[in-house]
Amino acid sequence: MHKVACGVILYYPNKRKVISDISRYSTLFDKVVVFDNTDEYNKEIQEKLSEIANVCYIGEGRNTGLPYAYNSILDIVKDCDFLCALDQDSLYNSEDIHEMLGMLDYTPKDAAVIGPHVIYNGEDFVKSKKFIKRRYVITSGCFINLNIMHKEKIIFDENYFIDKFEVDLDMQFRKLGYAIYEYENACLYQRLGTVGKNGKSNHSSLRHYYLFRNRFYFNNKYFSPFKRTVLNILQTSRQLWNIILFEENKLLKLKQLPIAIKDYLNGRMGEYVY
């Protein structure tokens, strides 16, 4: 019987919804750890969650970044076999969570991370009991094999703060010969960023800064000089064109690229400091 924990990251959450969600998760998982990244103490949430025996609420009264928050959760759930990672924007039905919990008994032996099928914008999807090997899955909703993490001494890379850290985690596993899977018989419904009138993402200028900078860091960490140069050019060009063609406040967002390049070259990682 696997012992499974759930880790939930909060950031200025809807208090009523979060309390309801965490209460439901507490009936499905052996342990629930809530890390609040909000810049102020949520006394109401803390008091309500303290009434639930298997829920632990932690936070530092500031936004520490997602990798730091998940690493803090990992320190608390060392006695568990799997961690289900979640955030407040995820809609994970109890039926789908039960399906994910049940599949842990017959996962592929090389599986380090197993994620559900993620549905954006209400797409149609037909479930099936298949494991599809992927290069990466998003962190929210995925089940991470903690025994492999401890054995290989893998943690979330806190240089990212946000964006690309989940891809980095999957890459760490893959470099060691493990695999990442999507389980097609469970779904997670996810809201992704801000969507403009044209249906395209409309990220903040700060989000674009992290996307630019963290891409350079990731590509440099894992790829040869030639490959990372090609990837940096292609991926950054795509991001620039998306800003120019589809997003608002174009000039402010375009100005993030030279700032991101400068900070990356000077080793300024983690949280952006104005």
UniProtKB/TrEMBL annotation:
SUPFAM superfamilies, per the entry: Nucleotide-diphospho-sugar transferases
A Pfam family the protein falls into: Glycos_transf_2
Keywords (A to Z) from UniProt: Transferase
GO molecular function ontology, one term from the record: transferase activity
Glycoprotein recorded as keyword: no
Source superkingdom: Bacteria
Record domain Glycosyltransferase 2-like: where: 29-136
Protein name, as recorded: Glycosyltransferase
